[in-house]
Amino acid sequence: KAGVTQTPRYLIKTRGQQVTLSCSPISGHRSVSWYQQTPGQGLQFLFEYFSETQRNKGNFPGRFSGRQFSNSRSEMNVSTLELGDSALYLCASSLEGNGEKLFFGSGTQLSVL
Amino acid sequence: GDSVTQMEGPVTLSEEAFLTINCTYTATGYPSLFWYVQYPGEGLQLLLKATKADDKGSNKGFEATYRKETTSFHLEKGSVQVSDSAVYFCALSDYNFNKFYFGSGTKLNVKP
After folding, report:
1. Does B1 touch chain A (CB under 8 A)?
2. Separation of alpha carbons B20 and B69, rounded Å
3. In this predicted structure, what is the pLDDT of residue B97?
4. Which of B43, B44, B93 is opposite residue A99, by nearest beta carbon?
5. Which of A36, A102, A41, A93 is nearest to A68 (CA)?
6. A108 near A6, Cβ under 8 Å?
7. CA distance to partner chain B, nearest, from residue A82 (Å)
8. Could A101 and B34 be called an inter-chain contact, meaning their C-beta atoms sit closer than 8 Å?
9. Where are the alpha helices (DSSP H) in A59-110?
10. Which chain B positions have a beta carbon within 8 Å of A105's beta carbon?
11. Among B104, B43, B87, which Cα is nearest to A92's?
12. CB contact, 8 Å: B49 with chain A?
C-alpha cells in the first residue's frame, strides 16, 4: 500500500508569489491534515479536511487555504508569500479522522527568498 | 487550550545508555497520547501510543505510560542504539476534533 505522497519535494519562491502544494493520502483514508514545521515553532496545525469539508482550522492567516477533492487528494495554497512562510509543510492522513494515528508524508520544503 | 511540553534537546547519549525524554500535557478532555519519530529528511512516523490512563505503549524497545495524575507521557528506552538518532515528538489528539497538538521535538544523538 502506497504511503502519503507529497509533491513537490522542494520549492523556492520569492516574496509576494503564491504556491500550491499537493498531497495524496493513503488509499481509503478520508481525513487529510496539514502541518507547518519550523525549527523554532515545531509542528503547527494548519487545517484538516474530511470528505471534502474543512473540519478544523489552526491559527494561521487567511493567506493559507486548502481544499480536498472527491478522491481525498488535498492541496494547500499560500498566497502573497512572506519570508516567514519558509518551512517544511507536512501532510498527514488518517482513516476516519477521529483522533487515531496519523500517517505523514515526507513533506514539501518551501523556501521563500 | 490543549498543549504538550517536552524537554528541550539535543540529548546526546552513548550507545547502550538509558534514555528518558520527558513529556507533559494539558488537556480539557481525555486525549490519546503519542510519540512520533522523525528521521533526517523524512516525515514523522508513529512510534507508540496510549489511549487511556495507565495504558503503556511500546514499540522497538521504547515505552511510555499514560499518567493521568501527573499528566505525563515520558518516553524511555533501556539501551539506545546509534540508529535511534532522530527527533522525537510527543503529541496528543482530541477525539472530537481530530486535532493533534505536538511538542517542539527533542533531538537525540547517540554516539558509538
Report:
1. no
2. 19
3. 62
4. B93
5. A93
6. yes
7. 23
8. yes
9. none
10. 43
11. B43
12. yes
CA torsion A49-A54-A56-A59 (nearest 10°) is 110
Query: Which run of H or of E encompasses A34?
Result: strand A31-38
Predicted confidence (pLDDT) per residue in B51-99, tens digit: 999 999 999 999 999 999 999 999 999 999 999 999 999 999 876 667 7
Contacts of A92 in chain B (CB under 8 A): 43-44
Q: Which one, of B82, B64, B81, lies nearest residue B73 by Cα?
A: B64
Chain A residues contacting B, CB < 8 Å? 4, 31, 33, 35, 41-43, 45, 48, 50, 55-56, 90, 92, 94, 97-107
CB contact under 8 A, A55 and B94: no
Cα(A101)–Cα(B26) distance, rounded to whole angstroms?
A: 19
Q: What is the pLDDT of residue B28?
A: 83
The CA distance from A31 to A33, in Å, is: 7
Question: pLDDT by residue (tens digit) across A52-77?
Answer: 999 889 999 999 999 999 999 999 99
Q: Which amino acid is at A3?
A: G
Q: What is the DSSP letter of B67?
A: B
pLDDT mean over A92-101: 82
B104 contacts chain A (CB < 8 A): yes
CB contact under 8 A, A43 and B89: yes
Q: In chain A, pLDDT over 70 holds for what percent of residues?
A: 99
Closest by CA to A8, choosing from A68, A91, A72, A102, is A91
- Residues paired with A36 in a beta bridge: A44, A89
